[in-house]
Target: Nucleotidyltransferase family protein
Amino acid sequence: MKAMILAAGRGERMRPLTDTCPKPLLKIGGEPLIGWHLRRLKQAGITEIVINHAWLGEQIEHTLGSGNQYGVNIQYSPEPSGGLETAGGIATALPLLGTQPFLVINGDVLTDVDFRHAAQQAQTLSADGTLAHLWLVDNPEHNPKGDFSLFSDGLIRPNTDNGEALTFSGVGVYHPDLFQHTAANQRAKLAPILRQAMSSGQIRGEKHAGLWLDVGTVERLHEAETMVGQLAL
Model:
């Protein structure tokens, strides 16, 4: 199974730190944020990694290289200035990701989602015809109404008025077919594509009750420093 780490964002809310350093390379516990993902992917037996980048992407490639220091093999998917948004970035990287379901992780979250479980979900996607499996979390202060609703049958629906309203963690397993109508090298957001598939009952997921933090501000970067010791490696 392959994994993609999304690392193309500008990190506007993290300025001035991100004026000279891409957000995925900001350090937490002495390790670049993206390094925690790489270590946990290796631990889960997922060693073929794709990383997209745009802002200061050359720093990401220079720092991580081939991935050898983490025991993984990294391929890069460069994007133009400003990036391609999530769906556009994934669609552009599909030639590197292959034809089987793959794991995608936001580069700016700190989480202990069990990546070994992702491989099991990938097999289920191929078997039952659903297009994605998402991990959802309790709504943080900055997103009190949530993104989607999780229902008892495991399906996720776009309307947060019913079911349990939760926030998308930024971690999901996707079948390549989800992006069959998304053009490569064009900007495209992920949420509208997910909502359309949800309306057809093709997106399922689960609630993650463990460690999760959206490291999107300087304040949350400091918070991450106090939480990183909870990651089991």
Remarks:
- The chain is about 30% helix and 25% strand.
